[in-house]
Specification:
Layout: E1 3-5, E2 8-10, E3 14-21, H1 26-29, E4 36-39, E5 44-51, H2 54-66, E6 71-76, H3 79-90
Antiparallel strand pairs: 1-2, 3-5, 3-6, 4-5
Length: 91
């Protein structure tokens, strides 16, 4: 089954970037296993990782809410960005 979320097909794992307000320490970061967490200079945190399907996306968003974090944005990265990220990881 293929789902479409805001024009993005969710038929396989997709790379997402989720921005939340405030920096995440190791304790909060441990709730997002498998995500790369980057605390940004502007005071936000960027979580980047693969999300399997819409149910998993909702689970991550619920976790953000349960931890009292303020969600700023959720972006599915185009397939080209996924390839670039994989190349960066290999270097």
């Amino acid at each position: 089954m293929t789902l479409e979320l805001l024009g993005h097909r969710m038929d396989s794992s997709s790379l997402y970037q989720i921005r939340v307000k405030g920096h995440l320490n190791e304790t909060l970061g441990s709730w997002f296993e498998g995500f790369i967490i980057s605390n940004q200079e502007d005071g936000d945190a960027l979580l980047t990782g693969h999300i399997q399907d819409q149910a998993a996306l909702h689970g991550i968003l619920n976790q953000i809410s349960n931890l009292g974090l303020v969600l700023i944005s959720v972006n599915a990265l185009p397939k080209e960005d996924e390839k670039d990220e994989q190349l960066d990881d290999e270097e």
